[in-house]
């Protein structure tokens, strides 16, 4: 487990007994590389991907993906679920690198629990009822990695942890050339959040000058040239 997680207030009966990265490996989930995620910064940006709050709340911006408008057809719903799972995979990679890039000592094993999800599903069909089903592609993937009774590692609807389960809204009726845009709020230990903010700020990607410093320090620590 993560050092910050071990010292957290999570009660024993809800503590994870598995390494999140083991599950990620079993699911063949690609987190990307430091350079792929740190190759961008906030120059000319009007939004960010992640905000850390000193309370420990972490806000992840939404990301739209998928083949287009959803409607109540089983095959189309499946396509939407696959798109939602793809976004979950990307968000897991984003959360990983936003936590670890500055070397404060935390990683995904320090994620305490998931707070709130929102799935905005594209469908101009007013009779569409499948927004929750489409968004399940996201939620079930999140539970598979962090814990939950509907995840891939649950047995008889039970898991050893439920830190991937979240309050959620799933709404259809939006327009766009994608299928779904989920956003998420998770909680990390306040001590880790404050360490991140003190070292490099509350925002990811980083401002250009700070990104340059963090990239240099990361490559130096790993014996690589920046």
Describe the structure in your own words.
With 226 residues, this protein is an alpha+beta fold. It has one domain: RutC-like (60s Ribosomal Protein L30, Chain: A, 2-Layer Sandwich), CATH 3.30.1330.40. The protein is 37% helix and 15% strand. The protein is built from seven helices and six strands; from the N terminus they run H-H-H-E-E-H-E-H-E-E-H-E-H. It has helices at residues 3-6, 20-26, 34-38, 74-100, 131-146, 190-200, 208-221; strands at 50-52, 57-60, 113-122, 167-174, 180-187, 203-204. A six-stranded mixed beta sheet has the order 4-3-5-2-1-6. Strand 1 and strand 2 form a beta hairpin. Helix 4 (74-100) runs parallel beside helix 5 (131-146). The radius of gyration is 18 Å and the shape is globular. The two termini are 30 Å apart. The mean pLDDT is 96.
Oligomer: single chain
CATH fold assignment:
60s Ribosomal Protein L30, Chain: A
Name the helix and strand elements from N-terminus to C-terminus, one letter apiece.
HHHEEHEHEEHEH
Any idea what the radius of gyration is?
18 Å
Uncertain ranges: none
| Span of the ends, CA to CA | 30 Å
The largest pleated sheet is described as:
6 strands, mixed
CATH superfamily: RutC-like
Structural class: alpha+beta
Q: Report the helical percentage.
A: 25-40%
Strand order of the biggest β-sheet: 4-3-5-2-1-6
Name of the CATH architecture: 2-Layer Sandwich
Integer count of domains: 1
């Amino acid at each position: 487990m993560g050092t910050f997680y071990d010292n957290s207030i999570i009660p024993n009966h809800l503590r994870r007994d598995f390494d999140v990265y083991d599950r990620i490996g079993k699911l063949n989930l690609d987190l990307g590389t430091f350079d792929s995620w740190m190759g961008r910064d906030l120059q000319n940006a009007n939004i960010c991907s992640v905000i850390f709050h000193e309370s420990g709340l972490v806000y992840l911006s939404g990301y739209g993906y998928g083949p287009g408008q959803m409607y109540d057809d089983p095959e189309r719903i499946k396509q939407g679920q696959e798109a939602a799972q793809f976004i979950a995979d990307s968000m897991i990679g984003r959360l990983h690198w936003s936590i670890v890039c500055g070397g404060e000592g935390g990683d995904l094993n320090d994620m305490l629990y998931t707070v709130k999800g929102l799935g905005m599903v594209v469908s101009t069909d007013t009779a569409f009822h499948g927004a929750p089903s489409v968004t399940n592609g996201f939620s079930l993937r999140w539970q598979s990695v962090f814990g939950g009774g509907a995840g891939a590692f649950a047995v008889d609807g039970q898991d050893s942890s439920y830190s991937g389960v979240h309050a959620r809204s799933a709404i259809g009726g939006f327009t766009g050339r994608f299928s779904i845009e989920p956003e998420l709020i998770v909680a990390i230990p306040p001590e880790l959040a404050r360490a991140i903010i003190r070292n490099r700020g509350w925002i990811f990607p980083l401002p250009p000058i700070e990104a340059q410093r963090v990239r240099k320090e990361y490559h130096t620590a790993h014996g690589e040239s920046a």
